[in-house]
What we know:
Blueprint (H helix, E strand, L loop, with lengths): L1 E3 H26 L2 E6 L2 E6 L1 H22 L3 H19 L6 H19 L7 E3 H5 L15
Antiparallel strand pairs: 1-4, 2-3
Helix pairs in contact: 1-2, 1-4, 2-3, 3-4
Amino acid sequence: MRISGWIVFAAILMMFAGTMSAIGGLIAIIDDEIIVKAGESAVAIDTTTWGWIHLIGGTIVVLAGFAVLGGALWARIVTAILAGFGIISQIGFIDAFPFWSLAVMGMYIAVIYAVCTMGRPDEVMDFDDITATPDVSGGTPPPPTS
């Protein structure tokens, strides 16, 4: 199977991000009430809906990450769209967590680059070549085949 190193990076990053999102969603479902102090009063916020959105969305991201490794075109499109939404979502946190938001935006940009340039001949590697035992005999290499 021939696959790009960038694609492996994008797929693993999407699987990791999806897993973390799903875990965050599950936590929001289980512990579904947050008390926030607003001025002189306290406001209770129910996070159940937010949790379900992140649990389902995170699961879709994980599945898309596995499908990207399989080379599915639909998964590349879904991954690019979800990474774009991830960039947009980080804009809301840039005032509170500027370094983190910019770092996450940079990772999502790298993911979009990876899935949009998938299949370029100069980036493709063969997993069979990686797992093959290297020739350490010291002899001359065989001539290239065309």
